[in-house]
Each structure stands twice: as C-alpha cells, then as structure tokens.
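ping. complex inputs:
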Amino acid sequence: MTTSSLSSMLDAPAPAALGVVGDLARLLGSSFAPRAAGPMEQFEIHRYVPLSLGDIDLSFTNSSLWMVIATGLAILFFTAATRVRSLIPGRLQSVAELTYDFVADMVRGAIGPEGMKFFPFVFTLFVYILLANLLGLTPSIPGLTHTFTTTSHIAVTIGLSMTSILIVIVYGFYKNGLGFLKLFAPSGVPAWLLPLIVLIEFVSFLSRPLSLAIRLFANMLAGHIILKVFAGFIISLLGAGGVVSAIAIFPFLGTVAITLLELLVAFLQAYVFAILTCIYLNDAEHVGHH
Amino acid sequence: MAHLWMALAAAAAEEAEGIVAAAETSSGGLPQMDFSTYPSQLFWLAVTFGTLYAVMSSAILPRLGGAIEDRRDRIADDLDQAAEFRRQAEEAEKAYQTSLADARAKAQSIAAETRSEMEAEIASMQAEADDRATAKIAAAEAKIDEMKDKAAANVRAAAADVAREIVGALIDEKPTDETIAAAIAKSVR
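pong. complex structure:
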C-alpha cells in the first residue's frame, strides 16, 4: 500500500482517466497482503479527478466522493420517505418524521418558535454530519471500497462551524443592528468589571467556531485511530501464528465494542453540533436575554 | 506466558511503527494538516452541503412538515368531532330526561284529575241520594202529621159527642157546639 499523500501525488500527474477505479486498483494491489495499513492512512486524501480554478486546486478526491455519497444517500432516503405522503406513516416516513421532530424540538427548545426559520439549516447540518459520521464507520471492502470519514478532517469541520457562526453573526447584526454587540456586555455587570467581562465574552465568542470544529474533528479522528489500532492488533496477532493467534479474539471484541461506541459518538457529535448551533443562533435571536 | 507478552509487545511495536511511518511519510504529519487539500475539501463541502440544503429546504422538509401538520390537523379535527358527538349525546340525554320528567308530570296530573273527577261524581251521587232521602223523610213526616191531625180531630169530635151526652144526662140540657168546642179547647190546652 502506497502511503503517499496528496502533496506527493501532485508531483506526478494523477491518472485522471482511472479515477475511482485507479484508486481501487492501487488498493487492490496491497490490501490482501497480511499487513495492516497504518492508522493514519485512512485519513489520506487522494485525487480522483484533477480540477482547478486558476491556482486553486479543487480536485474531486475521495473526500469529495464520500461527501457526495452522504448527500446522495440523504436525498435518496428523504425523497423515498416523503414519496408517499400518507396519514399513517410507513417505516421510512416514520424515521424521517422522527428525525424532523427531533431537530424541530431541538430548535424550538433552544430558540423558541421564532427560531423555526433556521430549522432547514439546522436539519441539513444534523443530517449531513450524522451521515458523514455514520458512513465513516461502514467497513471498507478490501480491494473494492475505501471508507473515508469526511468529518475527520478539520478543514470540513471548520467549514461547517464557520458556516454556523457566520449565520449567527450576519443574522445577529441584521436583526439587532449594533445592539448585537450587547452580546459581549451582559446586563447587571458592575462598570469596573465590564472591560474584563467584555474581553472574556469576546474570546469565548471567538472560540465558538474552533471548539465546534475541533470537537467533531477530534472525536472522529480519535475514534477511527483507536479502531484502526485495535484492528491492527488483530492482524498482527493472527500473523504471529500458533497459540498467540488465539489472543486475537480480545482486540476483535474490543473492535466490536469500540464500533458500537463510535456509532453512539457519531450520533452524539451530530447532535452536539446541531444543538450548539441552535444555542448560538439563540444569542443572535435574543440578545441580552442571558 | 512470556511468549504471549512478547508477541503482544511485538504487535504493539509494529503498530507504533506504522503510526510513526505514516506521520513521517505524509509531509507535515497528519493528513488533516496538509493545507493543500483544504480548498478542494471546502469547495466540495460547499457544493454538497449547499445541494443538500437546497433539496431539504425546497422539497423534502415542506413535504415532511406538511405530512406532520396534516396529521396534527386531522387528529385535532377528529378530537373536535368527538367532542361534538359527545355534546350531541349529552343533549340527547338531557332531552330524554326532560321528556321523561314531562311524561311523569303528565301521568301525575292525569291521575289527580281522574281522582278529583271521581270524587266529584261520588259527591254529586251522594248529594242526590241525600236529597231523595230527605224528600222521602219529609213526605213521611207530612203524612204522619196529617194522620195525627186527623186522629186529633176524631178524638175531639168523639170528646164533643161524649161531652154532649154527659151534659145532657146530667143537666138535661143540650149545649151548643160552640160551647163544647170552647170547653174542650180550654181543657186540652
């Protein structure tokens, strides 16, 4: 298995025509070898279709592919779920409505009924992150697919969190004008303490997009590294042969347990991202109510 | 046992090597820190997220929300209808109760009327019988009086005859009828 990163791939022109197949072929060449891939390999980005705008590289990569898969699956699922709009929901419609109500309750609870204008955004955010996280947990089929977790990259999570925060800032100023700045000066603070409070509030506001992005990214990164390391133990122990191979059952059970835990984390992180976005949006909607 | 631990250690070491190797070969350590991939990631994120948002907000969420809203409306309607039916049932029960009370009152009034009618009839029949009896009694009394008068007259006449005979025998004088009558009337009184 080649461990070349995108930057080293850039030196040699990528086999554009091969695209996905080319990547799969490269995987095929090595993945059957009795050696575990490095735990960081799963995060590497490979170009499938080179694309650029001037000097900016916008190539279609494995990351892009999994984003498209997540979006496609989400659209496919929800289209199928709402195809027959029946009074008594079927299985698909039930799941879709459950998700709808879950996010709607989240938005109403955090912002109130007037926050429902943000509902489509929060819903999209939740579904997008949830699907990206869950798809990252699907096993790769050796030689066929190579699972990639788009949310394990900080560029993606920063992009999502900056979108949230920019909406908060733009809407905050649109709704409250300069009154939005009261966010940094909570009422009831003695004047001599105000400069310190404003500084603290300002720093805490700045840290919001970072904490949002890093929480999601770090959870995905850590979970997938641990999974890969445990899976690597299995291969190594089996490779050792003899009695030692029998011990491979323990990292195997560990992998199963961590996979279950990661399923929970996948959902939880999507939820946390969405609910925090709601709380930040609430600041923009109700300045000075905290 | 030592053999096992050595094998485990070897496995761990191999893993660690893998991590180190990966970190070394990928320039700048983590693939996440390779800034050259950022524009592509952000671009495709914007494309896919934007697409998902557009589809969700324009097509899927209105349909989904509409279905939920329809159901809520339908349930509210059904509840309203149930309340209406309940109200109707209560009304019907009230009507039944009032008609039952009416019927009962009517029955009572009919019974009372009948009773008073019968009482009146009895009273009139009794009065009639009383009248008849009184008349009969009066007639009988009148007859008795008449007979008494007749008897008294007869007795007076007999007394006058006797008195005349006695007087004739005693003083050989024939008293007049008027004298005798006055004398009898005097002695009877």
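Helices of chain A lie at 6-11, 19-31, 62-81, 91-111, 119-136, 154-176, 194-240, 249-285.
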